[in-house]
Design goal:
Distance between the termini: 23 Å
Mean pLDDT: 85
Structural class: alpha/beta
CATH topology: Glutaredoxin
CATH class: Alpha Beta
Helix content: 25-40%
Strand content: 15-25%
Strand order of the largest sheet: 5-4-3-8-9
Largest sheet: 5 strands, mixed
CATH architecture: 3-Layer(aba) Sandwich
Radius of gyration: 16 Å
Length: 189
């Protein structure tokens, strides 16, 4: 499982860009940015996923004001399904990270078997993470021991906003001069 101060994996993913599709990798997408990425088991599954998505959209400006450049959502689905979901929910600020084969979820240790829920073997765990210039700053994942479809107690927008507000007032100040000096191996540069 990915840990704080680890470099995120570099995974290729197919994106729809205008009328064309284009292969992009996560290092290209997230380099030199502060990203808040949250994951859902899948779009269109239950109303809870849509309400989580809409809450992030509603709070987008507030999240940006707390130092995040972009908000992304991911699930083990292709770009076409994710785009249809964002369109149906009238989402304009949040970007989607397609993960049709679960490669991203598996690379960070968040691939789940949800066959008992009727969703198939490969789904994403529900989590939220902050990535600062390809380095994982924090990852908060949900406790799935109760109900993996409906629980979001630490990966919701309000919880992440509280976290961002708290670090704004502590030693972990988020400014460009205070970026980590830890490389992907966890050693000081």
């Amino acid at each position: 499982m990915i840990r704080i101060a680890n470099q995120i994996p570099n995974v290729k993913t197919l994106h729809k860009v205008g009328p064309h599709t284009k292969w992009l990798d996560t290092h290209e997408l997230f380099a030199n940015k502060k990203i808040l990425l949250f994951a859902v088991p899948g779009p269109f599954l239950v109303e809870y996923a849509a309400s989580q998505l809409r809450t992030y959209e509603f709070c987008y400006k507030q999240i940006q004001d707390l130092g995040i450049d972009e908000v992304w959502v991911t699930s083990v689905d292709d770009t076409y399904v994710q785009r249809a979901w964002l369109k149906r929910e009238n989402i304009s600020d949040i970007q989607a990270l397609p993960d049709p084969a679960g490669e991203w979820a598996e690379a960070i240790g968040m691939l789940e078997d949800m066959t008992t829920e009727g969703l198939g073997k490969y789904r994403s765990h529900r989590y939220a993470m902050i990535i600062d210039n390809l380095i994982c700053k924090i990852v908060k994942y949900e406790d799935f021991t109760h109900n993996p479809m409906t629980c979001f107690q630490v990966s919701d927008a309000d919880s992440m906003i509280q976290y961002l507000e708290s670090i704004k007032q502590t030693y972990e100040r988020w400014n460009d001069e205070a970026r980590d000096t830890v490389d992907a191996t966890g050693q000081d540069k």
